[in-house]
């Protein structure tokens, strides 16, 4: 039996992109960053290629510092609260001083694959 074709995977990817409207950052415990300067960033997605979508542009997050560790990103439908749809754990970066965490679009994506 053959797996699902690219048209199907791209349709699913388009739907996924329509419900993941925001990207947020998580700490080394998997909890969303809780910081007065931080907020989720709205995301627009590329057209899918073989079931893969990526943000159209890099996303910049303000972090106040104080030892906050950024160790991943997660996708959300809403600007605050709501469902966490998953994401990816990243190499940790500690912010002792205020700054920006830049999530690079070309290194970020949601892949939709068909299992057989």
Report on this model:
The radius of gyration is 15 Å and the shape is elongated. The strands form 3 sheets. It has a 4-stranded antiparallel β-sheet with strand order 2-1-5-6, with no helix packed on it. The protein is 12% helix and 36% strand. It has one helix spanning 6-19, and strands at 22-26, 41-42, 52-53, 59-63, 68-76, 84-95, 99-103, 110-111. 24% of the residues are buried. The protein starts with 5 loop residues before the first helix and ends in a 5-residue tail after the last strand. By secondary structure, the protein is mainly β. The longest helix is centred in the first third of the chain and has 14 residues, at 6-19. It has one domain (6-107).
The gist of it:
This protein is mostly beta strands and 116 residues long. It contains one helix and eight strands, in the order αββββββββ.
